[in-house]
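Quick illustration, no need to memorize.
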Amino acid sequence: MERSHFTFFHSLRVRWAEVDRQDVVFNAHYFLYFDVAVAEYWRAIGVRYPGDFIERFGSDIYAVKASAEYHSSATYDELIDIGCRTGRIGRSSMQLLFGIWRGTEHLTSGELVYVNADLKSKKSVSWPEPFKRAILQFERTPPEM
């Protein structure tokens, strides 16, 4: 995973409540960091979530996979950069990739897979074209299709 493959970054400072007795960020908090980055990523590509999905597209997205790989640890009060990018867009699923850095040091890699589903039936449906277009126009490294 290379930092240069990411178009989008969100920076945040590690808070006291996020470190454990070992004085490092507790592993589960990295998923919170991924979630914060996703919300900011949607904003950066011009998609209102949940408004655009629920009101405009009649669908919603559901997480079906979450993983993280820890390379090093962040500690209290450090500034970290969370990169988020779309790695793959399928018919109804998408993979978001994450990288967390402290300066140039790569701390964590992550992946979330989402499925787009019809609000009523909860069955998978294709991604709306405006959503896919927004991603493709934004990303420096094109996602797999």
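The chain has a mean pLDDT of 96.
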